[in-house]
Design goal:
Layout lengths: L2 E2 L7 H15 L7 H5 L29 H10 L5 E2 L5 E2 L8 E14 L2 E17 L16 E20 L2 E18 L23 E4 L3 E3 L7 E18 L2 E18 L4 E4 L7 H6 L5 E5 L2 E19 L4 E12 L3 E2 L5 E3 L15 E3 L16 E11 L6 E11 L9 E2 L5 E5 L32 E4 L7 E13 L3 E20 L10 H5 L1 H4 L4 H7 L16 E24 L2 E14 L22 E2 L6 E10 L8 H7 L2 E10 L3 E2 L2 E2 L14 E2 L13 H6 L7 E2 L14 E2 L3 E13 L6 E9 L13 E2 L30 E9 L1
């Protein structure tokens, strides 16, 4: 993203007037908007950033101030409130149908001749539905279930052919070739655009779609997942494995070749956001057409290819009657991803491209010399040794000690080929001059979609690239534990498990804004490098960046570097019961802690607020739960012989099963809504109030917890130009408990091996209300907002982590097996 603020706005009052005038003129009038006169008392006579909320006695917005763009949008797409939220304010609960179709098919052939067994498999599945991909809770804003309903389709096509060759009674060779193709398409069904509401913004796109609009603490509709998207993930593979049993040894050797292809084409849509910026009323800002921020981008085409080669050798050695050793070595050689169409991009300070001589200083492409070459280097030192053992303590097979250690390499995704100018354009504008009516007034238009041979560079520039020293991430894994047989058919295990991630990929901004009120930058231009307010800072942001001409705001120059680490330590206890008195059961308990710098290994977005201090991000992982307990069982209910045969036929042969899940709360990352550090890098965190604990008593009623999960008075905005002292993921959210039951009966049919299965599934059978994490974003103007959701729980959460899936659900099924 390329944040820019038009330089003509001197303060909020002038920006307010400019946006109202733009709306007035866009609707066909001339001169000054009458709204400016009506709301003259909003700011004091000096037109400073000070304000008072006395523009009308009851804070109404005068009719001439209503934006025709936002009014038309709201009338068509935002339904009236029909409920009251936890804070006592109206809210809308919307619903929409979600038709879905799934098709699956499997074909299989097995053929034996001599010592060879040939097998072939082909699997296909297709699924499609119509749903609003953005109709989920986004921070403190609720969605609308029928806004931009997307036609989503997905398919998997996979097949393989294998030859199992028994060379000798002790030698086995398996050769297999396979093919897999995953496809996914998202297509908007509503092609209405912002232009249809009277806005001047034009979005270049393959398929037009509704805009992404957020009004702080009110609603959020649309998202990056609502625009047109086409994805293909394909691979061809060959696999060879050789097994030789010799004495007490079982040797295995093998290799695998993969050819990977990835394609992702997707559109952008304007992101328009209103908050508490001008009138100090989020709803009033939106209705008046006042914009705090606008983000735009053109379409993206990311295609990449990779070839991988893997080889391994290992031995299972029964050293004694009690001791078995396993040791081996795996060698991985994933050749570097490269762009399928030659559109790879990188960044090297001071480099001038030879491939595209007109490119801005710093951008490099495939074919450029030296550090400017966007082709990544292949690493040839990915050796992964493994060692394990199993020791039968008493030689009875009832008590054993097991352990192991090894190195396991992760896969690098295709996005490391780089995305940037001139192939892709994205820009962010803060306090835009023209509001919703003319969002890009006095700003650069959205760059057209790239066509082959074009060297058009829209300003400011941006690039997301792989670091020249990028290396393959890996995990050092270790485990040791004891296993004890109990009750004849039960097994109890206790294990220590450790996983230590190294060279994890982290994205961070290299073009932060410079804030300095002493030193060489300050002496060169104090007005630019030591702004007196966030408003002035926004106007000078492009002048304060490290690399002029490139974007400010955390997404201008994004480096994907192998600089992260992670640590996971756990005590895992497992009990397995196999069919004892018709009961099978699996129970597990985990006490653990996971730490990392960044938990999402697939993102390409910079999320580090202080790039020069990566260690400040090191904290509990986003998914960390200290304690987890799971229990599952299948019980063949006892049969009775007391009743007549017809009655016994009904009440006998039932199978009762269930799953119980419980875990402690996941972390809450408390952040602030703005750019208080004046660097543009987000998300930033608040300052802790000395002596005030953020924790509230745990014994409170659920309604009190919903209204305020943590003590919001414990946090304030940091001083302008500084970072807050609150750490990442510093609080814990609500715990989770769910119980699922199933009751099944199998009815035999006259045909051999055929039967009919009737089943009743009850999900969250006790209808336990599992609370989602509360809103963790502190707004700078929270005290001025009529809707304060900081610390408020706005939704429940289901077993898959998605909101809105928590309620009890009963499902009946009838399955024919033949």
């Amino acid at each position: 993203m390329n944040p820019v603020t038009p330089s003509s706005s001197n303060n909020y009052a002038v920006a307010f007037a400019n946006q109202e005038n733009a709306a007035w003129q866009q609707s066909g009038h001339t001169g000054t908007s009458p709204c400016n006169t009506l709301l003259n008392a909003l700011y004091n006579s000096s037109f400073s950033s000070a304000y008072s909320k006395n523009y009308l006695p009851y804070e109404e917005l005068p009719a001439p101030c209503f934006s025709p763009v936002t009014t038309a949008f709201m009338q068509q797409y935002i339904p009236y409130p029909n409920a009251v939220n936890a804070t006592g304010f109206p809210q809308t609960n919307s619903t929409a149908k979600q038709p879905r179709n799934d098709w699956d098919g499997l074909s299989r052939i097995d053929f034996n001749f001599g010592r060879h067994t040939i097998d072939a498999r082909f699997y296909v599945t297709n699924a499609n539905d119509v749903t609003s991909n953005s109709a989920v809770l986004q921070g403190s804003e609720g969605g609308v279930a029928n806004y931009e309903q997307n036609a989503n389709t997905g398919g998997i096509y996979a097949g393989n052919i294998g030859d199992t060759f028994v060379v000798t009674p002790s030698i086995l060779n398996v050769f297999r070739v396979g093919y897999k193709r995953y496809t996914s398409t998202i297509e908007p069904t509503d092609n209405t655009t912002a232009e249809n509401f009277g806005s001047s913004i034009f979005q270049p796109a393959t398929v037009q779609s509704l805009p992404h609009i957020e009004v702080e603490d009110r609603f959020a509709v649309g998202s990056n997942n609502s625009t047109y998207s086409f994805t293909v993930n394909e691979d061809e593979e060959m696999d060879e494995s050789f097994t030789w049993t010799h004495g007490n040894h079982n040797f295995q050797f093998g290799g695998e070749y993969l050819h990977l292809q990835y394609l992702h084409r997707f559109d952008g849509t304007p992101f328009l956001e209103s908050g508490l910026t001008y009138t100090k009323s989020d709803a009033a800002d939106f209705l008046a057409g006042l914009l705090a921020e606008v983000q735009v981008q053109n379409s993206t085409n990311l295609g990449a290819l990779q070839n991988d080669l893997y080889m391994y050798g290992q031995d299972d050695w029964r050293a004694t009657s009690k001791l078995t050793l396993n040791y081996g070595l795996r060698y991985e050689m994933p050749f570097a991803w490269h762009s399928a169409d030659g559109q790879g991009v990188t960044f090297s300070p001071g480099f001038q491209s030879v491939v595209i001589p007109s490119a801005p200083l710093g951008l490099g492409y495939e074919g450029d010399p030296g550090q400017g070459n966007a082709n990544l280097r292949t690493r040839y030192n990915n050796l992964a040794p493994r060692f394990g053992f199993a020791y039968d303590v008493f030689g009875t097979g009832k008590t054993s000690i097991r352990g192991g250690v090894g190195i396991f390499y992760d896969a690098i995704n295709a996005s490391v080929v780089g995305v940037g100018a001139p192939y892709h354009y994205a820009a962010t504008y803060l306090l835009p001059e023209g509001g919703y009516s003319q969002p890009l007034l006095q700003a650069s238009p959205i760059a057209p979609n790239y066509t082959k041979g074009s060297t058009y560079f829209g300003t400011p520039f941006s690039v997301n690239y792989a670091d020249i020293n990028l290396t393959t991430p890996y995990t050092e894994a270790v485990n040791i534990g004891i296993q004890q047989r109990v009750f004849g058919s039960g097994t109890l295990e206790a294990n220590y498990v450790g996983k230590f991630g190294r060279h994890q990929i982290v994205q961070f901004d290299q073009n932060s804004g410079i804030y300095q009120c002493s030193g060489p930058y300050y002496q060169a231009n104090p007005a630019i490098y030591c702004p007196s307010s966030t408003t002035v800072a926004a106007q000078t942001e492009q002048q304060r960046v490290i690399y002029p001409g490139y974007a400010y705001g955390g997404q201008g120059i994004v480096d994907n570097a192998s600089v992260g680490s992670s640590n996971y330590n756990a005590l895992q206890i497992t009990y397995t019961q196999r069919a004892r008195k018709s009961l099978s059961m699996l129970a597990s308990y985990t006490y653990s802690k996971s730490l990392d710098i960044q938990s999402n290994g697939q993102t390409t977005t910079a999320m580090v607020p202080i790039p020069s201090q990566l260690g400040s991000q090191y904290a509990v992982s986003d998914f960390d739960s200290t304690q987890i307990f799971n229990l599952g069982w299948v019980w063949n209910l006892p049969k009775t012989t007391r009743f007549d045969k017809p009655v016994r036929a009904v009440i006998n042969d039932w199978i009762f099963g269930g799953i119980y899940n419980a875990r402690t709360g996941e972390p809450i990352n408390v952040i602030i809504a703005g750019d208080e550090s004046l660097t543009g890098d987000r998300p930033q965190r608040p300052e802790a109030v000395p002596g005030v604990s953020p924790n509230l008593p745990s014994g409170r009623h659920r309604s009190a917890k919903v209204a305020e999960w943590f003590n919001t008075a414990a946090y304030v905005y940091p001083t302008l130009g500084t970072f807050g002292n609150v750490g990442r993921n510093s609080l814990r959210g609500p715990a989770f408990i769910a119980t699922h039951f199933s009751l099944a009966r199998i009815f035999p049919l006259p045909r051999p091996s055929a039967n009919l299965e009737f089943k009743v599934d009850a999900f969250n059978v006790f209808n336990t209300p599992n609370l989602a994490n509360p809103v963790g974003t502190l707004s700078g103007s929270t005290s001025e907002s009529t809707v304060n959701t900081f610390g408020v729980v706005l939704a429940t959460v289901g077993t898959n982590g998605n909101v809105g899936t928590n309620g009890r659900r009963v499902q009946l099924s009838l399955v024919l097996h033949y």
